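Repro:
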Amino acid sequence: MSTHETSGRSYPVRKSDAEWRAELSPEEYQVLRLAGTERPYTGEYEDTTTEGVYACRACGAELFTSETKFASHCGWPSFFDPKDSSAVELIQDRTLGMVRTEVRCATCGSHLGHVFEGEGYPTPTDQRYCINSVSLRLRPKA
């Protein structure tokens, strides 16, 4: 069952599980639709400093910008703020015996990663949006 179907929320972009499976690679599907996590330090955007906009790999919605990306050295791309507060949806996640805040694309409901607060990073928001590279597609600045 996909993340979209289990969320209880209706998203602007809605597709059947079969459509998501047909459009996404197995790794993309595992992360975006089943709330999986890519292995740390393996994602293509972890160390990227290219200027541009990071969009949802599933639906293309603009989620984050290079201006809010920072080097957290945690193994995944980190941002201190989404491009727009309505670009992402935050949901309490009680899996794995802990309480975290899941970050989903507000347009299609795809799992992106988690957001953490109060970790001491020198960012304007004191937040770290820890996002799977496989859930993003970088659109370089022209």
